[in-house]
Design goal:
Length: about 900
């Protein structure tokens, strides 16, 4: 639609005759009498781009003054055609019939022909190395010259090239046959370009120029040598693994070995543009190859993962080797610049790592002050079936251009082996291409035949340049094949016999490319064979020394100097009990700041009442839930800890209790975040309403939490019931990430409505599921010792809490940051307690001397009547207030004691077992 807007914007109102709707091929009457009706959309838009008589007149007048002042196409038109000078717009509307000579009509047809190739050429491009499939399109693309009213005799005629193409280079006209040949070369060869769905003309022209300019796709001799060397290492690495561990599953890259040169070209190009930090997410396919040849993980360490005698010495739960993460700094030999590469650990759940990578990238950009993404870039690898089929792909794309979640563009590379395990693409997706989802965010898509390394490398370079130039997502679709089955032990002939008969006789891409370069004289046969021998020796040396490699951490973001031990050789982590109390003066200062009306923002009258009540609470040294969380976060900010809160409607709070962002009632988009105005040198508080997504957004926030241990990252579900939409992230990353990949995270999940009882859709954060996933052993009563509490906290996989007081919530928030290790925190946060008259805490429960309480014992009349107490009730969360009201109603205050279990996992065994309601716990 940008084309309609561009035409219309150049017209004065009287000159708006009639615009053809280019999208649906219907006419939209605007004003005046139409000057001509066209049979096709291409005819409606002249190659002169002159739907307006005034525009033509301007060009004509400029040509009269100086023939060289206008584009050559205009010059040729005015000099060589039967041109009738258009009258001024002040008079009657001219008829284009004055210009409808055969030459003009043919030039228009040439413009249509060129646009047809630009828009549809990719549908007949030679993308499949096996030459057995094409895009499943609704209709056959027809680009024959006869469709555009040309005959064979027209092929030698020269035509002026429109300004919408760059195929001529410095030439302004070409014979029709040369135009067609050039268009086929650009758009119908081994590269298929999807660009016409973009809504930005500058970006479309940029892509056209990158591919249409004559000679621009050719690689230099040096570049080809680099590609060959990288391709050699990629293929020979797979061959070596197949030789040494033929029965092991490794999900090799055979059939798409060119992925390694593609990734390294992206890194080279962006490194040259100043990027020095790459966050990578990928599935299992080719992961070991990427670790070896992109991340440059020592081969000894990779080979050690295949040795059963070595695996048991590694940390983690023995998760499969093709899920491991890695972080490394190395010198990029092409640019001679240092780069950092982080390959994020991921589960078998395809595409689940996508939002995690984006969140980690966003956090790294934040800490580096890289708001435009000029230093830190994310790269995501996908399989074709998963890219089309997994909804989290679309949730992640949906975050790509949101101001609070954007990473300023991601490089997406699809390893399109044209099969999903055993499922044919025709059964795996409804779209023509597996990449069609990317069109929704205006990402260009470059399809490329993976058996043409030169084309792949050039496309990768352009994709990287696009990201650097426009800061937007881009997709590379590597159309390849999978040499083996889903894994190396699988038999693919059961389900894809014809495809695998083709694959059986397909010459490997390395062999094809080596033959091509030897024929071109780029490399000699001897030099090529020497490189093979050299790499095989490197692999053999690594195999010999695989048992000598030092134990290494498979971490995608090591937290240097964060983990501390008691002393050299000690394996027990330091058991530090954090002090979560805050001085009274600071509580009062923060409380007054967040309860005061801003001076330059006119807030809602209802908010004025809320702020007034908050200030009164501060003056009384009290805090409700909203003030309690603000005091916790504000105190952490004052100590230099970054706090980020994200989720649906979190700025206001689903139940209108938080109001962390105050909006001006008179000025659009004018707002203030009080927690960012507490102290001059405080840390940054981020609070962001997310898109209506749980899976993608929680994954994003998890990734954010992985980057830096000194960040409190909080995701709040709109209702706890909706957390199950993000169950994959909870199950595969949050609950088990530490055991599988030694990855610690302090992410906090707030699940409102806990157990408030509002019906089947709004009552449960499913506390029981989180307890089922806890590694706390309910059948084992641990021995009591001085460090037991902290040791228990260290060994648990996460904390699960159901609080009854703002003060305990306050301490739990601070504990997340002040502990010497990181564990996720799951909170069954309330709804009814947000404004409950009894759910109020005194500053005494938050200032010096106070602490987090795992169990809160009875403190009422029953403590004065120990002999008369008939029952001790343990409860958790909101039900406590229901119980005390009922106890009061039946006058049983001195007969029934009620203790609250605030932290359910890890369970406070000793506090419950030795519970004595007469003694504070």
């Amino acid at each position: 639609m940008y084309r309609v807007k561009a035409i219309a914007s150049g017209l004065t109102r009287p000159a708006l005759y009639q615009l053809k709707c280019l999208h649906n091929q219907r006419f939209a009457e605007v004003t005046c009498v139409p000057f001509r009706k066209y049979a096709s959309s291409a005819q409606a838009e002249s190659f002169l781009n002159g739907s307006s008589g005034s525009y033509v007149e301007t060009m004509y007048e400029s040509w009269q003054k100086d023939p060289n002042s206008v584009h050559k196409s205009w010059k040729a038109y005015f000099e060589g055609q039967e041109f009738v000078r258009p009258p001024s717009l002040g008079g009657s509307v001219p008829s284009l019939s004055s210009f409808s000579s055969k030459d003009i009509k043919d030039n228009l047809e040439v413009g249509k022909l060129i646009e047809a190739y630009q828009a549809r050429g990719h549908t007949i491009a030679k993308l499949d190395p096996l030459e057995i499939s094409t895009a499943n399109l609704d209709e056959k693309t027809e680009l024959s010259p006869s469709i555009f009213n040309f005959e064979e005799s027209d092929l030698e005629r020269k035509f002026t090239l429109p300004t919408t193409t760059y195929i001529g280079g410095s030439e302004t006209e070409k014979p029709l046959k040369d135009i067609i040949e050039r268009l086929k070369e650009v758009y119908c060869g081994h590269i298929g370009i999807e660009l016409m769905h973009l809504n930005n003309k500058e970006q479309i022209d940029w892509i056209k120029q990158k591919f249409e300019t004559p000679g621009i796709v050719r690689l230099t001799k040096e570049e080809k040598n680099t590609v060959l060397a990288r391709l050699l290492r990629s293929q020979k690495f797979e061959e070596y693994l197949a030789k040494k561990w033929s029965s092991e599953k490794r999900f090799g890259l055979e059939g798409c070995e060119v992925l390694i040169p593609a990734m390294k070209t992206v890194i080279d190009t962006l490194s040259d543009r100043g990027v020095d930090d790459f966050i990578i997410g990928m599935p299992h396919r080719g992961r070991l190859n990427v670790l070896a040849n992109v991340c440059r993980t020592p081969l000894e360490r990779i080979f050690g993962q295949f040795d059963p005698d070595l695996e048991r010495f590694e940390e983690g739960s023995g998760d499969v080797k093709y899920h491991l993460g890695m972080s490394i700094q190395r010198l990029n030999r092409v640019t001679n610049k240092n780069v950092s590469l982080s390959l994020v650990a991921n589960p078998s759940h395809l595409e689940a790592v996508d939002p995690v990578v984006q969140g980690k990238t966003k956090a790294k950009q934040f800490y580096r002050g890289d708001s435009e993404g000029k230093k830190v870039v994310s790269m995501l690898l996908h399989g074709d079936a998963a890219f089309a089929g997994q909804g989290v792909v679309f949730e992640t794309f949906h975050l790509s251009d949101l101001p609070d979640y954007t990473t300023n563009g991601t490089i997406h590379i699809v390893v399109n082996n044209q099969i999903g395990f055993t499922t044919d693409p025709r059964s795996a997706r409804s779209s023509a291409y597996c990449t069609d989802g990317a069109r929704m965010v205006n990402a260009p898509v470059f399809h490329v035949n993976a058996d043409d390394p030169d084309a792949v490398v050039y496309v990768s370079k352009v994709a990287a340049e696009w990201r650097a130039e426009f800061g937007k997502d881009v997709v590379i679709d590597l159309v390849c094949y999978r040499k083996n089955g889903h894994n190396e032990t699988d038999e693919p002939m059961f389900t894809q016999p014809l495809m695998y008969k083709k694959i059986a006789v397909q010459k490997p891409v390395l062999d094809q490319y080596a033959e091509q370069l030897i024929k071109e004289g780029v490399v000699t046969t001897k030099a090529y064979e020497e490189e093979i021998e050299k790499y095989n020796k490197i692999c053999e040396e690594a195999f010999i020394h695989k048992k000598d490699h030092k134990k290494g951490e498979w971490l995608d973001s090591p937290w240097d100097n964060f983990f501390k031990k008691e002393g050299p050789g000690q394996e027990r982590w330091m058991m530090v009990k954090p002090n979560t109390a805050v001085p009274e003066e600071k509580l009062n200062h923060i409380g007054m700041k967040v309860s005061s009306e801003p001076e330059d923002v006119t807030i809602h009258s209802g908010l004025k009442r809320i702020m007034k009540m908050r200030k009164q609470m501060v003056e009384k040294r009290q805090a409700d839930w909203a003030l309690g969380e603000a005091l916790a976060w504000g105190s952490l900010l004052s100590e230099g800890y970054h706090v980020r809160l994200s989720g649906q409607d979190v700025e206001r709070g689903t139940f209108s209790h938080r109001h962390a962002v105050l909006f001006d009632q008179n000025v659009d988009k004018k707002k203030i975040v009080p927690l960012n105005h507490l102290y001059p040198n405080q840390a940054k508080f981020q609070v962001h309403n997310s898109s209506l997504s749980e899976y993608g957004v929680l994954g994003f926030e998890l990734g954010y939490s992985l980057e830096n241990p000194y960040t409190l990252v909080i995701w709040e579900a709109q209702f706890g019931d909706f957390a199950n939409t993000a169950q994959c992230i909870i199950d595969q990353f949050i609950s088990s990430g530490k055991d599988k990949w030694t990855r610690e995270s302090g992410i906090t999940l707030l699940l409102p409505h806990g157990y408030d009882g509002m019906g089947p859709e709004h009552s449960s954060g499913r506390l029981e599921r989180f307890l089922q996933m806890s590694n706390d052993d309910g059948d084992y009563f641990p021995p009591e010792n001085e460090d037991f509490v902290t040791q228990q906290s260290h060994e648990i996989n996460w904390f699960v809490c159901n609080f009854t007081t703002p003060a305990n919530f306050f301490h739990a928030m601070r504990r997340q940051i002040l502990l010497p290790f990181r564990r996720p925190l799951i909170v069954m946060s309330p709804k009814s307690l947000l404004r409950h008259k009894d759910a109020i805490s005194s500053f005494d429960d938050m200032n010096e001397g106070s602490k987090f309480r795992r169990v809160i014992p009875e403190s009422g009349a029953a403590t004065q009547n120990a002999a008369g107490v008939k029952k001790l009730i343990f409860c958790s969360g909101k039900v406590y207030y229901d119980l005390i009201y009922e106890r009061e109603k039946k006058e049983l205050n001195d007969q029934i004691a009620i203790a609250r279990i605030e932290q359910i996992s890890p369970f406070p065994f000793h506090l419950v077992y030795f519970a004595d309601f007469t003694v504070p716990i």
